[in-house]
Design brief:
With 73 residues, the protein is of the alpha+beta class. It is built from 2 helices and 4 strands.
Length: 73
């Protein structure tokens, strides 16, 4: 985990589920800096791919309290 991830205490997560891919972005709500983003084909398993992204984000930012995370889908 990078130093910048440790200094952040809240997150905004944006998730876009499309017809062929899922895209996700994690943003610092204070300065709007993109902390992480990815997109991957879901191969008709949209829910599984979203869960995979959320688990990855949770592991990447383990110090963030759930009440300090806003998710937009």
């Amino acid at each position: 985990m990078s130093d910048i991830n440790q200094r952040v205490d809240s997150l905004i997560i944006g998730i876009d589920v499309g017809s062929t891919t899922v895209k996700a972005t994690v943003v610092n709500p204070i300065n709007k800096e993109i902390l992480w983003s990815d997109y991957q084909r879901h191969n008709t398993k949209q829910a599984e791919k979203v869960l995979e992204f959320l688990i990855f984000i949770g592991n990447e930012f383990p110090h963030i309290k759930q009440e300090n995370i806003r998710v937009f889908i």
